[in-house]
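Much of the work behind modern protein science is quiet bookkeeping, done one molecule at a time. The fold becomes a row of whole numbers, each drawn from a learned catalogue of backbone shapes. The protein below has been through that process, and both of its lines are reproduced in full.
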Amino acid sequence: MAANPSFPLNGKIAIVTGASKGIGRASTIALARLGATVIINYSSDEEAAQDTLAEVQKLGAGEARIVRADVSSLSGVQSLVKQTVESYAKIDLLIANAGVMPMKDLEHTTEADFDRTFATNVKGPYFLAQAVAPHMSRGSHIIFMSTTLCTASTVMPGYLLYNSTKGAIEQMTRVMSKDLGRKGILVNAVAPGPTGTELFFRGKSEEMLKTIAGFNPQGRIGTPGEIAETVVFLAQSSWVSGQVLRANGGMA
């Protein structure tokens, strides 16, 4: 029977980490709208995760379930993948979206800051990919999250630690696509520009937000839904791999 073009991801099992808010939430809803069954992963905010689940249930398209796990730890990674495979026997999509963004220049970075940021932004995605790959078939997708700031010509010193983790993500994407490509698994990353998430808005004044919006030729900040469009594109591609897709409205 031919696939329903209205639900091209019907039958696909997707894990989205950090799915309760922001880009993760928008990606969850976008994938479910196309028929995917989505695992809504979160680590602390159960209410927000339940809100995301309720939004998916309103769609009448894909399904979703919530799995709490701290994917900055190996035990959390293993728990998330184990619960998914026990329920669905396979994984078709991994959106490794969970992340933290401390504003830390060199002088003010502590060892605890460094360890926490790399654990969440790098170690988690790395070992998630390792854990899901054995349960993926040819044509499956792993999508990481980077940032346009990796290539922006003007970057404030406070992004040093965050950008360091995203530089690692871009190299993981490039090399892992060769590694997992041997199994037919496609590996890419999305690199958003400034995007209106709770994480992005935290600690920024209205004046700073206006300045950041002014860096974009369209004079505005992107939305989580616009980044989710990019995730959906990569989730349906068959020949795009090893790429970092910069979704920033022409900013950089």
User: Anything to note?
Assistant: The radius of gyration is 17 Å. The longest strand covers residues 186-192. Residues 13-247 form a domain with the Rossmann fold fold (CATH 3.40.50.720). Residues 111-132 form the longest helix (22 residues).
